[in-house]
Amino acid sequence: xxxxxxxxxxxxxxxxxxxxxxxxxxxxxxxxxxxxxxxxxxxxxxxxxxxxxxxxxxxxxxxxxxxxxxxxxxxxxxxxxxxxxxxxxxxxxxxxxxxxxxxxxxxxxxxxxxxxxxxxxxxxxxxxxxxxxxxxxxxxxxxxxxxxxxxxxxxxxxxxxxxxxxxxxxxxxxxxxxxxxxxxxxxxxxxxxxxxxxxxxxxxxxx
Length: 207
Ligand code: GAR
Description:
37% of the residues lie in helices and 21% in strands. It is an alpha/beta fold. It has one domain: Rossmann fold (3-Layer(aba) Sandwich), CATH 3.40.50.170. Strands 3-2-1-4-5-6-7 form a seven-stranded mixed β-sheet. Helix 2 (45-52) links the parallel strand 2 and strand 3. The chain is globular, with a radius of gyration of 17 Å. The chain starts with a strand and ends in a 7-residue tail after the last helix. 36% of the residues are buried. Mean pLDDT is 94; it is low at 203-207.
């Protein structure tokens, strides 16, 4: 066992959060390596980011005839080849079943662009902004949590942060601030998890 934590990152899109993780690994802030990136979509920017960093990628698109569990079984088979310590869902827009999750108890981490329990599912940033224009929402936030089961964007919270919505915000300016907060919170939380992993599984010292 080395003291570098093996991260498998799963993505579906732009991959700005993947980039934040790659950068933090490269500059030594995270004592970790992204050992693989799996995308459920082809031709997404996240794959280009991974390739530029020299990280192996796999595109695993769902087949029309297969159900969630069958897909997740194939996903699990591929994930296993990377022997990850942690699986990070960085904008992976599929709900995972126990077929996959059972293999990684306490080891799947999800990022959600809202405060715990709020705005679950897709387009949380856009929905928060729309609610602020209806004059009742003043802030949203970002959550990083464990994924113990098939619940959507729920699970034990590892960290969260509030992001205010200003009166003069546009969707673009609010989205940008949300993404900045996501990148920071995700990397910080992974840092804490990586330290935990290396403490729980201390490196063998030769005598
Ligand atoms: C992020 O905003 C992430 O929080 C969100 O997808 C985006 C991915 O951005 N995830 C969810 O909405 C999960 N419910 P990225 O591809 O640029 O990292």
